[in-house]
Specification:
By secondary structure, this protein is mostly beta strands. Helix content is 15%, strand content 39%. It is built from five helices and 24 strands. The N terminus is likely disordered.
Length: 289
């Protein structure tokens, strides 16, 4: 029989096993890729944080914006933590293959900050039709202290279609607030990345840093420890059971699926070339699929 003190004790919170500031140039920093942390945190395989002031945004616009490039086998999730953007294309996606890069333009803002996440897709979706959702910040469901970007938390479900077993939350905690994230059963993968403020996650974190938690289903205990709001994204998931087969812009579950995905984006690339100039009145270029 368990001792009463042990029976009623709170679970030991999950420890941080690694912290990183990633690498990058300019206003984009890569915090995770499939060749490093993505191997341990799959289905989460890429994570970038971007942070640009108005001068940087204008310089990007003058240079022609981001280059057009392809993807296959992944879902991309963009979360803006400061500023706003305009999208011209109503059906961006990845899955079976797309070319994109110029469909988004920054709004009239002094600063643009946020995260772009890539999720490895299961075999039944990795070469399927591209699908997308554009959701205004006010329409993302909320359960304190998190907006539910992907998945389900506290019986509140995101409107974003996604495979089961993945949670991705945008969290804001005021100075001094504490929160313990209880992962759903099976969610042994856990991490967070801090955009603003300071956070005590068992170790002190500051803006721009990513923390990886030990495998397991224990809670992740957090406290906003600075004098401003702590704003961060947190991911938890059932581990992706497939190996990562990597192309230059693709992530798939097998060599065969990778070959099929790359054939598809090569075909789309030829059609994109034949389509010629597709620039819209706003200066953006819609996604090609």
């Amino acid at each position: 029989m368990a001792h009463p003190a042990l029976k009623n004790a709170s679970p030991i919170p999950r420890r941080i096993v690694q912290q990183t500031r990633g690498h990058g140039e300019g206003f984009i920093t890569r915090l995770m890729s499939p060749g490093d942390l993505g191997q341990a945190l799959k289905p989460f395989v890429f994570l970038d944080i971007f942070d640009a002031d108005r001068a940087m945004l204008q310089a990007v616009e003058r240079s022609g914006g981001m280059p057009i490039h392809p993807h296959s086998g992944v879902a991309t999730v963009t979360v803006i933590t400061e500023g706003h953007a305009r999208y011209d294309d109503p059906a961006i996606g990845a899955g079976g293959g797309v070319w994109h890069g110029k469909e988004m333009t920054a709004g009239d803002v002094s600063r643009m900050q946020g995260f772009q996440l890539w999720l490895a897709l299961p075999p039944e979706l990795e070469n399927g039709p591209a699908e997308s959702r554009y959701i205004d910040a006010g329409d993302i469901p909320y359960a304190w202290p998190a907006h539910i970007i992907v998945g389900k938390y506290e019986d509140v479900r995101s409107p974003v279609p996604a495979p089961d077993g993945i949670n991705y939350l945008l969290v804001t905690m005021r100075p001094g607030e504490s929160w313990s994230y209880e992962p759903p059963p099976g969610h042994s993968v856990g991490w967070l990345a801090l955009a603003k403020g300071t956070l005590d996650a068992g170790s002190t974190m500051s803006a721009g840093e990513m923390a990886i938690f030990e495998n397991g289903e224990a809670p992740i205990s957090l406290q906003a420890s600075g004098d401003e709001d702590a704003v961060f994204v947190l991911g938890s998931a059932v581990p992706h059971p497939h190996p990562l087969h990597l192309g230059y812009y693709s992530v798939h579950t097998s060599a065969e699926a990778l070959a099929a995905g790359e054939r598809r984006i090569a075909e789309l690339g030829q059609k994109l070339k034949e389509a010629g100039d597709r620039q819209t009145a706003s200066g953006s270029v819609p996604v090609f699929r």
